[in-house]
Prior knowledge:
By secondary structure, the chain is mainly alpha-helical. It has a domain at 34-68. Helices cover 78% and strands 0% of the residues.
Amino acid sequence: MLLRLVFLIVDLSSRSDVDAPSVGVWSDLWISFWLYEFVEAVSLWVVLCSLLLGERAGYAVDAGKLLA
């Protein structure tokens, strides 16, 4: 997670078309990164909980149908 943020910052810094990124660019990058991580973590927890609840009930839960 932190490594991905470092790669995003290095990529943004190394672009030749971006002269000097403003504070707004960095804050937008930071917000979008954490929003992405939050959505990823929530979806992972939903899949894991549904699989655990499905195993307890005695049937397998199709995670693909849950996310679709």
